[in-house]
Amino acid sequence: MNGEGSESLSKTTKSILSKYGIRLNKNLGQNYLIDVNKRNQIINFADISKEDTVLEIGSGIGTLTIELAKKAKKVIAIEQDSNICEILNQRLKNEKIDNVELINEDALKIEFPKFNKIVSNLPYQISSPITFKFLDYDFDLAVLMYQKEFAQRMNGEVGSKNYSRLAAMLYFKCDVDKLTDVSCESFIPKPKVDSMVISLTPKESGLDSEDFEAYSKFTKALFQHRNKKIRNALIDSRHIVSNLDKKEMKKRLNAIDNEPLLDYLTKRVIVLTPEEILLISKELNPIFND
Questions:
Q1: How confident is the model at residue 3, as a pLDDT?
Q2: Considering Cα of 230, then 232, then 234, then 236, what sign does the dihedral take?
Q3: pLDDT at position 1, please?
Q4: Fewer Cβ atoms within 10 A, N terminus or C terminus of the chain?
């Protein structure tokens, strides 16, 4: 790491934004980290080596990008704002950094080039869809910063207010670990809430792709109605799990004579463990899609 202090990082960031006449848009999640200690901590958590290709979503003016590039084999930096992208491109030239592939695109709409680690201060408004997208890729480790409330939902316990579709999906895919809190004072412009850095470490689920696809569909359908009973939630979100109309869906549910499965159908979504949702999806998917 260079010897840059927090005051220096804050000054550098403000100076660059002022030089190019950039006004950051909080509505686009443009909150730039100005705490050098937290930046260094995030990079250290990722344990970057010259073997690593790092994906960064929402690279901004390069607060993380430039330091990542000094440690990694390659950084794939994706930034949607074309003006910000051009500033980062110029900074990389000035620093004579040539191992960054800068992509000026919407991260939700493109296929990612090959990478093995993810390190990002994510734009808050895409936290959920981008995290689901990460689950479609193979990687070794992700170190990600989210709004604190969102991060807490990633590890929500069954039955709690933080239990979410995201927690249920991550359960079979990754170990989720809290690494550090980050105060709202560590950003410009200052967001209204604090943040949290978490790590995602992929794990072997033992599920084949067909079972996980069914689990994914049922999880999405159920958590749209997390306080309803399973039966009613599935009827209301039937378009996600099948092509059946409401009448036919009810008919097939009424024809079930499996007592344990019938018992599950009377429970509320929020009290079911991921294993129980998996069991239900395995039982009901063929019934809804024969």
A1: 47
A2: negative
A3: 41
A4: C
For the chain, report the end-to-end CA distance as a whole number of angstroms: 58
Q: 0.70 cut: is pTM over it?
A: yes
Per-residue confidence (pLDDT) for residue 22, from 0 to 100: 87
- Sheet harboring 100-103: ordered strands across? 100-103, 74-78, 53-57, 117-121, 141-147, 195-202, 174-182
pLDDT at 29: 67
Mark the ranges of the chain whose per-residue pLDDT is less than 70: 1-7, 26-29
Q: How many residues does the chain have?
A: 290
Rg of the chain (C-alpha set): 22
Query: Rounded to whole angstroms, how far apart are CA atoms 142 and 228?
Result: 33
Residue 268 CB burial class (10 angstroms; 0-12, 13-18, ≥19): middle
Q: How far apart are CA 287 and CA 248, in angstroms?
A: 11
Phi, psi of 49, rounded to the nearest 5 degrees: -130, 175
